[in-house]
TrEMBL record:
The chain crosses the membrane at residues 6-27, 34-54, 60-81, 101-126, 132-152, 187-208, 214-232, 280-303, 315-337, 357-378. The keyword DNA-binding does not apply. InterPro entries: DUF6350. Residues 387-407 are annotated as: Disordered. Keywords: Membrane, Transmembrane, Transmembrane helix. It comes from Terracoccus luteus. This is Uncharacterized protein. The keyword Membrane applies. Residues 387-397 have a biased composition (Basic and acidic residues). Residues 398-407 have a biased composition (Acidic residues).
Length: 407
């Protein structure tokens, strides 16, 4: 029961993250004719959206997951799960910890979370939008991700024995590569976020002007800004689509890529004022694809610094390629969640086209990692030749000195 109760509390905590601002926004808009329960209903629907689920109302579907909200939910849920696991480790015999964790604590925690999701789903009844039954079960994405983030750590002393056994079945370098791959995913997202921030700074006047057009009070403006900040994670994945080459679209028929920009007609969201105007770009802008390549090279450097391969070139290339591929897979998963629908017709498909994006980003990041190893090998072999030549030179000099002595 402790696991189920903790799962319920974790869900309530993540629900409060979105419902409380919704209520604040309702209070700050006294001219609204909607009741407080509608604000709770909308906030509850947003809770499901933040869990990677789709909500529908009046034939309009919303399936774009706010990535930062999702990550925040996972973090909060992981804090609850960590406390649960730590408490149970203190009271259980060491021989029973792993079995209880796998058979009782994890299922109970996730089950409690899903039970809370069912209750939250009931709160959307009568509101303008709501989830389906599949969305209630799909909300388990957050507790599963939180539990995975806690347990799938092969280098952690608190990791379950069965997790460490799984990783021991693979190559010896797998635990280190696993850690570096996740770190690389974070670096890729930071690259995308840096591009977004740079663009917003360059167009801050247009963004602020559109924000002022809403004519809301201070509290309403704060809620509006917070909502846009939650979408910065999505914008980071879309910016990665730009730097990888395929680009992204925010409306049907629109595209923003290193080749050209045609953003089309978009919603009056202040953050979208940072989008470039319609234009064709010079070929030199394609150099932005070097950013993922540099991230791949950084991953290769990290792998080389963390591991010693003792001359096994094949294992070295495999390790760096695995780390790079893991980073790309994580980014692709978040990008798939960041994509989706914000409405119908022009807003039915928002985000990065995954079909060209996936192979392009994979080739660039893995290529950069392998390029690092290739250059490192050339340097090492050159250093070995120089050392061998220096040794031969000293040997010849020593032989000459002996010969002179004999003469």
């Amino acid at each position: 029961m402790a696991a189920v109760r903790t799962g319920l509390l974790a869900a309530v905590a993540t629900w409060a993250i979105v419902v409380l601002p919704a209520l604040v926004g309702w209070i700050a808009a006294p001219e609204s004719s909607l009741g407080w329960f509608t604000a709770v209903s909308v906030g509850s629907a947003l809770w499901f959206v933040g869990h990677g689920q789709t909500v529908v109302g009046d034939g309009v579907a919303v399936s774009v997951t706010p990535v930062l909200l999702l990550l925040l939910d996972v973090y909060v849920t992981a804090r609850f799960a960590r406390r649960l696991f730590a408490t149970q480790r203190e009271v259980l015999p060491a021989s029973r910890v792993d079995r209880t964790l796998a058979r009782v604590l994890v299922p109970g925690f996730v089950g409690g979370y899903v039970i809370a999701a069912a209750v939250i789903g009931l709160l959307t009844l009568g509101g303008p939008v709501g989830p389906g039954l599949l969305a209630v079960a799909g909300a388990a994405l957050v507790p599963l991700a939180a539990v995975g983030a806690l347990l799938l750590r092969p280098d952690d002393d608190d990791a379950p024995g069965f997790v460490r056994a799984w990783f021991r079945r693979g190559p010896t370098w797998l635990p280190a590569v696993w850690r570096i791959g996740w770190r690389g995913a974070g670096v890729l997202l930071l690259v995308g976020a840096a591009v977004v921030v740079a663009r917003v700074v360059l167009t801050v006047g247009s963004v602020v002007s559109m924000q002022a057009d809403y004519r809301v009070n201070v509290v309403g403006a704060a809620v509006l800004v917070a909502g846009q900040l939650l979408m910065l994670g999505n914008a980071a994945t879309w910016a990665l689509g730009f730097v990888a080459g395929p680009g992204f679209s925010l409306a049907a028929g629109s595209v923003v890529s290193p080749v050209a920009a045609d953003p089309g007609l978009n919603p009056a969201v202040p953050l979208l004022a940072a989008l470039p105007e319609q234009a064709a770009y010079p070929p030199v802008l394609l150099a932005v694809v070097l950013l993922p390549v540099l991230v791949g090279a950084l991953l290769g450097r990290w792998v080389d610094a963390a591991l010693e391969f003792f001359g096994n070139t094949r294992a070295r290339f495999t390790a760096v390629a695995t780390a790079a591929a893991l980073a790309v897979v994580v980014v692709l998963a978040l990008t798939a969640l960041a994509n989706g629908a914000l409405g119908v017709e022009r807003l039915a498909a928002v985000g990065v086209p995954l079909a060209p994006f996936a192979p392009a980003l994979l080739a660039e990041v893995v290529g950069g990692a392998c390029l690092w190893v290739g250059v490192a090998l050339l340097r090492e072999r050159r250093a070995e030749r120089d050392a061998a030549a220096a040794t031969d030179g000293r040997g010849d000099a020593d032989d000459g000195a002996v010969d002179d002595g004999d003469d």
